[in-house]
Amino acid sequence: MTLKFTALVAAGLMAAAPAMADLVVPNLSYRTGPYAANGIPYADGFNDYFTLLNERDGGIGGERIQVPECETAYNTEKGVECYESLKGQNPLVMNPLSTGITYQLIPKVGFDGIPLYTPGYGRTSAKNGKVFEWVFNAPANYWDGASVAVKHILDQEGGDLNGKKIALVYHNSAYGKEPIRTLQELSEKHGFELLELPVDAPGQEQKSQWLQIRRDKPDYVIMYAWGVMNQVAIQEAVNIRFPMDHMIGIWWSGSENDVKPAGAGADGYKALTFHGVGQDYPLYDDMKTHVLDAGKASGAGDQVGTVLYSRGAYAALVIAEAIRKGQEVAGTSQISAAQLRDGFEALDITAERMDELGLPDFGQPVKLSCENHGGDGLARLQQWSASEEKWTLITDFIEPDEEVLAPLIAEDSAAYAAEAGVTERCN
Amino acid sequence: MDQLIYATEVLLNGLMTGVMYALVALGFVLIFKASGVFNYAQGVLALFAALTLVGIQQGQIPFAHMINAMFGTHLETFGWTVPSLVAILLTAMVMVVLAFLIEKLVLQHLVGQEPIILFMATIGLAYFLEGLGDVMWGADIKTLDVGLPQGISETIEGVTADWFGYGFFIDRLDLWATAIAAALVAALVAFAQYTKQGRAMRAVADDHQAALSVGISLRFIWVMVWSIAGFVALVAGIMWGTKSGVQFSLSLIALKALPVLMLGGFTSIPGAIVGGLIIGVGEKLFEFLIGPMIGGATENWFAYVLALIFLVFRPQGLFGERIIERV
């Protein structure tokens, strides 16, 4: 009996654990709960990109990639549990898709020596590799987003924002509060008045905030929302007849899910993005052949080309390129988490490389270093067409205002270093 | 003067929002009143009802994702759409079937158990229904349109602009919600007062044992009450789902009903309405007057603080029954 039980346990463990030769890149996803509608396409895009590499190229450098998935339900406690349970599988990197989980994991990954990749979310000052040795947030962060939004508004207003009013409608959480300091600095620099309007999670009821916007008549609204807060905010903006092309969402407020419920009213709504839109890229032909038509898609295959699917795939692409670079630097295909960190710091995804990968003009060049874990932080704007039900890119990549952002990042990361007792590296 | 006008607008919007909260609270009250069960699954019932309504309306094949995953098919819809009214009626029937199943599979086995056991059962039910809704209709955000108008009422805006020099914002959806909630409450009260089943429901609410002794079927009453609560959940799901699209966070609207129930009392239908109005107006006015001084986002916690203050003075809520237990 004991022998049988031991054999069963051993068989179970062997089935659960990836093959020893595989590289492990976990997917901390959320396919259930209130944020599932956003978590599913992102997780599918992430999985499908690695499936494509496995099926088409035999993996990376001859090593197949295992992507064990763990359900976080966008819940910080569950996210940390996922991290702890996956740690035993020797993961190369973690991408938790939650700023709350990221904040909890930052001290842990430093201790465990596992890179944390948080593209477009997480702790902004993690861009400073001198302090955050194990965290990477390229190609853009929340402060980059705020700065690019203001630059776009400057462009719309002929370069002068004196006397203008900009309202920030934000998710009252670590995520939503991230851009406040940046926008305060930018308001001083450009002379606009900043109205800060927090909305408590989940954000189903926002009447007070939109009545205030109707009374105060800001010229523009910048929004940092997530989940149901996005749909309700856009609907309320439509209700008060706020001009949609004067409303700019961060990239987490710019998926098809966010605008479709408001119907025709959402036409003209703008959002930031750090990657291309739609399926008109050669990569998707390969995706169709090797993943979708082969019946190996992560989900139902109905999310391909959506904003969040593309973002998940792009996150996987950056990780894959970092693995490739890590293998090159280490001189071995079976790299460790520490060697992947070296790969991230040597990462150099050029425009030509994006062409080779089948995604021309999809993302900005990403060049990281020991000091710079966040890239150049460029972003572009997309606009929603309600009649065609699609996003269209309306600007090129716009550089953020480093003059304002660099000192803020230095200040915030220095505060973290002092608090956590971190000694600066890269000297 | 401007502040007074703005405060009036906020107050009116608070009343409308309160009606939306009351709609959710009503379902809780109905079940608690008739069976003493605090139905944790009421928010999920609203979600399930709204998901089913959209699914029927759009001719979606239930469990399509699961069937496709198991058999490699590509099923999505039946290829037809169903008119809103018919879809609402069909959904109401689904909610009746669901009520029957809940009674048969869950409640029947727990007759005579402590209220906390029944409460725990509804927690399980909430998780089950959330998962069932996901598997049945998919987790994507669905647009719900049953023909209810949305957006600013230009008539009210015009009239108030003439009177005060400032046009008030009132959402037409909120006006409809108010009218529908009023009709719903009137219908519920009439049902409880003037029909045989309604009187039986009240008898069960007053005393289970006495009701049983005069031949009232407890099982029938429970199915009936859960069906009515399911219908109320459908109405709440339509109103909230029209605003935000039908998505899984719809189940969280239950959180908005809790302070309403604490304030209005768990056993009173008028209490749910008055409680909803007080919470709606209170939180909106507090956010307007005090919010800017303390950083805003006061509404969620203010509703609970207000309810707690009421609890100190009236533990049974404004309209709840005072329970005196003598040793």
Describe, in short, the structure shown:
Chain A contains 15 helices and 15 strands.
SSE order and pairing:
The complex is a heterodimer of chains A (427) and B (327).
Chain A: H1 2-16, E1 23-24, E2 27-29, H2 36-57, E3 65-66, E4 69-71, H3 76-87, H4 99-112, E5 116-117, E6 135-136, H5 142-156, E7 165-171, H6 174-177, H7 180-190, E8 193-199, H8 207-216, E9 220-224, H9 228-239, E10 247-249, H10 256-259, E11 270-273, H11 282-292, H12 307-330, H13 337-345, E12 348-349, H14 351-356, E13 366-367, E14 380-385, E15 390-393, H15 402-420
Parallel strand pairs in A: 1-3, 2-4, 5-6, 7-8, 7-9, 9-10, 10-11
Antiparallel strand pairs in A: 11-14, 12-13, 14-15
Helix pairs in contact in A: 2-11, 2-12, 3-4, 12-13
Chain B: H1 2-35, H2 42-57, H3 64-71, H4 84-105, H5 115-137, H6 154-164, H7 172-194, H8 196-206, H9 208-213, H10 218-244, H11 254-264, H12 269-289, H13 299-313
Helix pairs in contact in B: 1-7, 1-10, 1-11, 1-12, 2-4, 2-5, 2-10, 4-10, 7-8, 7-10, 11-12, 11-13, 12-13
Oligomer designation: heterodimer
Q: Give the terminus-to-terminus CA distance of chain B.
A: 57 Å
Largest sheet of chain A: 7 strands, mixed
- Please give the most extensive interface between any two protein chains, plus how many residues each contributes: A-B, 40 and 47 residues
- Catalogue the unreliable spans of chain B: none
The low-pLDDT segments of chain A are 11-20
Q: Could you characterize what this model shows?
A:
The complex is a heterodimer of chains A (427) and B (327). With 427 residues, chain A is α/β, with parallel strands linked by helices. Chain A contains 15 helices and 15 strands. Chain A has two domains: 22-140 and 281-377 and 407-420, Rossmann fold (3-Layer(aba) Sandwich), CATH 3.40.50.2300; 142-273, 3-Layer(aba) Sandwich (Rossmann fold), CATH 3.40.50.2300. Helix content of chain A is 44%, strand content 13%. Chain A is globular, with a radius of gyration of 21 Å. The model of chain A is unreliable at 11-20 (pLDDT under 50). With 327 residues, chain B is an all-alpha fold. In chain B, helix 11 packs across helix 12 and helix 11 packs parallel to helix 13 (299-313). Chain B starts with a helix and ends in a 14-residue tail after the last helix. Chains A and B meet through helix 2, strand 8, helix 8 and helix 9 of A and helix 1, helix 3, helix 5, helix 10 and helix 12 of B.
